[in-house]
Structures are given as C-alpha cells and as structure tokens.
Amino acid sequence: MESQNLDRRLQLRLVAEPATLKVLVRLRSGSTQSLDTKKHMRNDSSLFSATATKCSCFAANSPLIRCLRVFAWMFVVWNCHCSTEFGWDRAAHSSAPAFAINQRLGRGINILSLDPIWRDRARGWFKPEYFKLIRDAGFNHVRINLTPFGDNPGFAQGTNALRKEYLETLDWAIDSALAEGLLVIIDFHEFTLLGENPDAYKAAFLKTWEILAERLKNRPSGVLFELLNEPNSKLTPELWNQYLRDALAVVRKTNPKRVVIIGPGNWNNIDKLHDLKLPPEDTNIIVTVHYYSPYDFTHQGAAFAGKADKVGIRWGTDDDRRAVISDFDRAQKWAQEQGRPMYLGEFGVFDKAPEPDRTQWLKLVAREAERRGWSWAYWQFARDFIAFDLEKGQWVKSVLDALIPPPPPEQPAQPQ
What we know:
The chain has 416 residues and is α/β, with parallel strands linked by helices. It has helices spanning 37-43, 45-56, 63-85, 90-94, 96-105, 130-137, 148-151, 164-179, 191-196, 198-215, 237-254, 265-268, 295-298, 318-338, 355-371, 397-403, and strands spanning 11-16, 21-26, 32-36, 107-111, 141-146, 183-188, 223-226, 260-262, 285-291, 342-347, 375-378, 388-389, 394-395.
C-alpha cells in the first residue's frame, strides 16, 4: 500500500432510507462507490452495536444525538472504505501482527541463491557492502535463499549435520541485513529435491526447520521463516497441506509467535490458492505466491527453462495487462475471504527479453501488488533475471527504476 493512498480525501453524502443507510464514497480520483453500511454494521456489530443502541434510546431530534449519529456512521463509513479500498477486513484485524509485518516487508529482493559463499565465505559473489547498497536503493527486506541439502553433503541422507561454517554464514547474513535496517526472510529453497521425492526428503526437511528454529528463536520479529519455496510435482497440493502442518508444528515449538510464510502448491501458483489449507487458529502466517506469467515471455532465452533459442517475444498489449490484473484480482479475492496478508515472493523477467517490454511488465506487476497492499521481492539480485551487475558493480538502471520509481526531479524555483 503506498503511503499517499492514506491521504485520499473522502467526500461523503449520507442518504437516509427506511431499511438502511447508504453512503456514496467519492475518492479524489472521481470514482464513486455505494456502500451498504447496514451490512457493514452487521459485520462489525461488536464495534458499533453499543453505540447504535444507545443512540436510538434518545430523542431523535436532539442535536447531540444527531451529532453522535453522524460520527458513528462516519466511523462505519471509514471501516467500509478501509475494507474496500485498502483490502482490510475483520479477519485482517484479528491477524494484526502478520499484516503489520507484511507492510514492513514492503519491497524486497532475493539474494544468495546458489552462491559459493555457503561453501566458502572467501569465494562468495555477494559482498558485505551489498546489504547497504540494497537498503540505499529503497528495498525494505531480503529473501535469503537457502539450499541446506546441496551445501551440506550428506545431511539430507542423515550421515552428516549442518556444517558449523554454514550456520555461521547464515548468522552473518542475518546480522548484516538487520544492521542495515532490512527485514529478513529465511527461505527453504530445496524445492527440486522435495518435488522429486518428498518421502525421501521429508525427515531432512523437518530436521532443518528444527535446527533453524532453535538457532533463530531469539531473533527479532523482523526475521521471518518461509517453510518451502514452490512445492511442486510429486509434492502435490494435497500432500503439501500435510507437510506444511508438520513443519509449522516443528517451528511453533520454539517460535510460537514467529511470522511464517507459506504458499500454495504447483510452484506457489495463484490458481492453487483455493487448495491451500492453513490452520485457521494460527494468524501469524503470510501467504506467498510467485508470478512469471506469461512464462514464454518472462523466461525467453533461458537455457535452464528450455527456451535458449526462443527470444523476441513481445508483451504489453491491453489484453496482456488485463491478464495480470485479473490474476492478481483472483489472488486478492482469496486473501480477503481468508483474512490473510499476501506476499509476492518472486517475480521477474529473464534478461534476454526485449528491454522496453521487460521494464513495462516489471512496473505493472510491482505497482499492482502494491495497490493491493501486498509486499513483494524481485527475483533476483544478481546472475539470471539480473537486477545488479556484479561485473560493473552497479544496478541495472532500467530494472531498478521499474521496481522502485525514482523521485521526480525537483522543479526549478520560480522567480519572485
């Protein structure tokens, strides 16, 4: 949610009707929305029933009572407006810590994926000064991509532990990010192995979270856990519902209030949100989705996706833009119905795509996420989908400007 949304002025016109009270909410943009405040009073009876009942007991024509009625209805209107304009509802209020932290997450970027730093700090691509660089660019958090099976040979098979040096590198990354004012998401990124053979790797998956949760239990609330990146293939949405409950139970033993990020199956696909079954009593959860649609456009030229020779695919028609908005609207509808905050944990376009189309896609996706109050993290800092050029030691300006629009230039002072 962009802060300037909070500055919108409401022009209210109350229209008394026998059965209800309807309110026309006119935004500064000029759009008008009719809200049935009787419905919202019913939904929020715990907040307003006492006031309404007490007011009705007094003389209807009393100036004081008329004044109280106006203020009571204005409060209802503001509640309605928050519900519709900003995506808040009663369930959101009951999950306040997760919603508040999601707002703090704001704009983020994925880091340290497959970086040699996890095997040897001296060989890492990612340098300590990059944390400050990320913060200075305007990002609010980093999503640290962990592959503990690949970086700790024998651990997944039960023959070795997580190496001391590996855990110390994780501590260093968390400390460095927090020192620069960045929030941190610890992302379990071993999605390939768990997708191929979930039964064989479940024990190591749960053991990893037992170790990490114990080690990080005293970290501040700005350190979040993401149970698993992109459940897929044999780890079906139905099976994932079982695994996520088992992993969440492990985390909750040592981190009962830690905000945990969980996404749907089929690669954190928006269309699988309806299959995601979260424990309703646990409100310290943020739901994540990933977005790379249309895949042929976002992954053109990527050899790992089998598209090395498929380039020159354009994007940007009105239909293209409407498709993104429609996808996000479906996700937002689910989030509001379930009372869960949303996090767009990955999105991006491979750097072989036509540059103007790439930046337009990034702008639309980032702004549409923010318009719905979602936090987001770009994939990724360096290497493929590049946002920062390691060789040149500088941001890819078109990508950074698309993600975080630069402030408008200062206007020259007018002569007196």
